[in-house]
Amino acid sequence: MSTVQITAADVNKLRQQTGAGMMDCKKALVEANGDFEAAVDLLRKKGQKVSAARSGNATSEGLVSINVSADGTNGKLVALACETEPVSKVEDFRNLAQAVLAAAVTSNPASIEELSAITLQDGRTVAETITELTGKIGEKIVIQEYANISGEKIVSYIHSNGKMGVLVVFEGANGVDITEAGKDVAMQIAAMNPVAVDKDGVDPATIEREIEIAKDVIRQEGKPEEMVEKIAAGKLNKFYKDSTLLNQEFVKDSSVDVRKFLDNTSKGLTVSAFKRVQLGA
Question: How far apart (Å, rounded) are the C-alpha atoms in residues 134 and 139?
Answer without folding.
Answer: 5
